[in-house]
Amino acid sequence: MPVAWLVWLLVSGGLGFNPQEFMNRYLGEWALNFLLLALAITPARKAFGWTFVAKYRRMIGLFAFFYAFLHLTSYVALDQVFDWAEIWNDIVKRTYITLGMISVVILTALAITSPVAIAKKVGAKRWQKLHKLAYLAGVLGCIHYLMMVKGFQIEPIIYATVLAVLLGYRTYLWNVKRAN
Question: What distance in Å separates the CA atoms of residue 137 and residue 159, rounded to the nearest whole number?
């Protein structure tokens, strides 16, 4: 639905004064929305007994990748107009671009290894270890957003707070498991 809404805004002229920036931020925010939602599934399952949500984790994670890929594509195509030298300069010069690129690389690796057949081929332990990188992608994505905005804006702080709560709960679960 977020893509359909974006297409509607594009067709109806509702993207504002800077359509490229609007699209880029919109897609990046949806990538973070889906990533945080995917990371919230285990805490929701453990805290509320919502076992049914586990079957949606892979799909939601793939949505996170999809929107991160669209966010990257928007940056490459609309912002930089495929100027690869300028893109490389941005990656090297701007830390928030570097962090965003690393996050997209991580999400790409997770999307590629998402199918059950690949998980079986890699082995459950190694697959689970690899997919814990989703937390790193979330941290990098939140830092990317915090560094990207100009001035004080509450949205990136909200995303970072939600991630901190999810990571805190995950750490709590890990400590409880270790203690037992």
Answer: 13
